[in-house]
Design brief:
By secondary structure, the chain is of the alpha/beta class. The protein contains eight helices and 17 strands.
């Protein structure tokens, strides 16, 4: 398929720059795949689509403050964006990369230094002069580049899901930002199961697609984990006729990575580079909560695989007409 089939025009003013004061007051577009209809409502309407015996799956990764600002000995400013904080050998996006020489030491805040090494498949190898846990104390919230402002103290909370508990992500699994602890309790009270999986959202999720044929795009690996207890909850729902609702494309990718051909999931952990685009046969999920995604992104391709590309295109056009808020801090979609 051609990349241009997943490109659309979005008015800049519809890119959400700030979170809502109350997480669950965002708008919700409900897409019915069978009826090919899209209806607008409030996010809390999601409760009407969750029933006893269903299983709602959340990604419990926690965003790490991986953006650092520093300067060279010449005084030039440098940005270091750490890509894999869960690994021993660290790599980062370095800006401006061409000017920073291999072996050069960049001075960060609070006297912390980072030595920039050679080039990797994605960026540059880096090494801090202190333990990473200490370096991260000076890091900034890694807001995406389409949020055209500096991060602030509020972002440390609002760019994190209320159930985030396993540090490792360099970007928030933003579909989960709409949920409150109260809303999750109401889901449980309806008799639905809650299951937590982990995918440390990183460059693999958000790397831009630059190939004309999307099938040629190389997906980078990200760490995932599916526990025994989560697998039991998901498989119980499948076997009893309940539906599995994945919150976010990252949860979808964990479930489909762990999927067996018989329609169950297998517990495990490791690295995944699964790339889901139209033509993919879903094995586990029955529904998906997601945000509105960037043009030409692998996330939009995943949604188009689940809901039919032409239907997604029409729904995005409707959302733009109705002035929905797009991207990380924006409004949500429920696809059933």
């Amino acid at each position: 398929m051609k990349l241009k089939e997943f490109v659309y025009d979005l008015p800049k003013e519809l890119i959400a720059q700030e979170p809502l004061k109350k997480r669950d007051t965002s708008r919700l577009m409900v897409m019915d795949r069978a009826a090919k209809t899209a209806k607008m409502g409030a996010f809390r309407d999601i409760l009407a689509h969750i029933k006893k015996g269903d299983c709602v799956v959340f990604n419990d990764t926690r965003v790490v403050p991986v953006r650092f600002y520093g300067k060279r000995k010449t005084g030039g400013k440098v940005e270091i964006f750490l890509l894999n904080p869960w690994e021993k050998s660290l790599e980062a996006l370095v800006r401006p990369s061409k000017r920073v020489k291999e072996g050069e030491v960049v001075e960060l805040e609070n006297g912390i230094n980072v030595t920039v090494g050679g080039r990797t498949d994605i960026g540059r190898s880096v090494e801090f002069n202190v333990p990473l846990a200490d370096a991260l104390k000076t890091g900034h919230v890694p807001l995406p580049p389409y949020i055209s402002r500096e991060d602030n103290d509020e972002d440390k909370e609002t760019y994190q899901t209320v159930y985030a508990r396993k540090p490792g992500a360099t970007a928030s699994p933003t579909a989960g930002l709409h949920f409150t602890e109260e809303l999750i309790s109401e889901i449980k009270n309806k008799g639905a199961e809650i299951a937590y999986v982990t995918l440390h959202t990183s460059y693999g999720t958000f790397a831009p697609v630059s190939t004309e044929e999307i099938e040629d795009h190389p997906m980078h690996e990200e760490y995932y984990e599916l526990t025994d207890s989560a697998a039991r909850s998901i498989n119980t729902a499948k076997r009893s006729g309940g539906k599995v609702l994945a919150v976010g494309t990252t949860s979808v990718r964990v479930l489909e990575t762990a999927a067996a051909e018989n329609g169950t999931v297998e517990a495990g952990s490791g690295m995944t580079c699964i790339f889901i685009y139209p033509g993919y046969r879903f094995k586990i999920i029955d529904g998906m909560v997601t945000n509105f995604h960037l043009p030409g992104s692998t996330l939009l391709m995943l949604v188009s695989a689940f809901a039919d590309r032409e239907f997604v295109v029409r729904t995005y056009e409707q959302a733009i007409k109705e002035k929905f808020r797009f991207f990380s801090y924006g409004d949500a979609m429920l696809i059933v």
